[in-house]
Amino acid sequence: MENLIADRMSDIPKSFIREMLKIASQPNIISFAGGLPNKDLFPTESLTAATENVFKIYGNDVFQYSNSEGFSKLRAYIAETYSKKNIDIPAKNILITNGAQQGLDLIGKVLLNEGDGVIIEEPGYLGAIQAFSLYNPYFSPVAVSEQGMDLQQLELAISKRTHKLLYAVPNFQNPSGITYSKENRVGLAEIIQKKNIFIVEDDPYGELRFSGSPQPSFKTYIPDKTIMLGSFSKIIVPGFRIGWIAAPDAIFEKLLIAKQASDLHTCNFTQYIIHQYLQDNAIDTHIERVISTYSEQCQCMISSINRFFPKNVQFTQPEGGMFLWVTLPSGISAMDLFDIAVKEKVAFVPGTPFYINDKGDNTLRLNFSSVDTATIETGIKRLGNAMRKLQENQR
Ligand SMILES: Cc1ncc(COP(=O)(O)O)c(C=O)c1O
Asked: 243 C-alpha to center of ligand 1: Å?
């Protein structure tokens, strides 16, 4: 039945990570492979209470069809949160989506014809690579480092061909954990300002900062060109699938039509519950708890790396979020390391799937949010052993 499948499905990155996650979830394996928030921090009791209140307040309406834009009170809450950060986005420009992930798909649907240029971070978020790939664009990868996007590479990429969008996760990037500096943001905005390109600023981790200070959104520099993606997945719960697109007028109506065609609207019930939860609870206090836990877990991972990894291994020092990024000496393959690591009962995600063109063979991603500190220490020790074994095998 193979020839029945549409051409657009042919180049989608393989679900190779899913295969790895299967291995990583075997018993006794310590997994740094997933990208999951820490479930012990989910505010289950408060969400239960919010659900009861929702029924008291809205009755049967919670089960009715609704409008495609999303629950008006939730959109107003999101607009108000932006305004507290001096970002001016009216509620009318906010579209509630099935997680930020659906936002990526809708943006691809609305903007991309086959062969259109997309600038993507290298390494970049696999979910974005997958979502945009369905529209068969031309990807121009631009390297990111501890400072942010490589602006020389960006200028070069832009000078070579036209692009419709640039996709960036400027805060605690998935997969690398890096954050764009202010200077880098200003430089990037200046380059984009002169071009006919949208920038998609995907910011699911922005609230989870445990050191350093917040950096300005691209929206403050190039408001008409910036499409923002947000999500409650990392600060409340991912399972409700509530995220949003904050889009300029020039594209909002088109996104709304694409949303309507795709699923009519995001689940009404969970939108009401999230909104009620935000009314009844001090979200800042909850976020502080998440930050303090992740900060401890990240610190534990870094100090364990310093103790147990060979000294020729490099790694990023995130100021927030859920991931850090490891670079092995060149010529050492993270795929080979994966096989040895699984025997040592520890797992991670090799870096290659986060690159277009199969690069990054000597890189890997470690998640620190979903593993407690004692387990992190044991797991990093095992991974250090696996690295030594691999380096010895290669001598
Ligand atoms: C950079 C980035 N964007 C979007 C998402 C998807 O988030 P959501 O749960 O809101 O769909 C993730 C999830 O891991 C992510 O890391």
From this structure: 9
Phi and psi of 168, rounded to 5°?
A: -140, 145
Q: Which amino acid is at 167?
A: Y
Tell me the CATH number for domain 64-280.
Answer: 3.40.640.10
Q: Domain 2-42+285-394, what fold?
A: Aspartate Aminotransferase, domain 1 (3.90.1150)
pLDDT digits (tens, 9 = 90+) for 159-184: 999 999 999 999 999 999 999 999 99
Top mutation candidate among 42, 169, 174 for ligand 1, by most atoms within 8 Å of CB: 174
What DSSP element (H or E) covers 267?
A: none
Atom of ligand 1 nearest to the CA of 242: 10
Helix orientation angle between 268-280 and 44-58, rounded to the nearest 10 degrees: 110
Question: CB neighbours (10 Å) of residue 112?
Answer: 20
Q: What is the pLDDT of residues 113-135, one digit of tens each?
A: 999 999 999 999 999 999 999 99
Q: What is the pTM of this model?
A: 0.96
Backbone torsion region of residue 345, taken as left when φ is above 0, otherwise alpha when ψ lies between -120 and 50, otherwise beta? left
Please compute Rg for the chain using Cα positions. Answer: 21
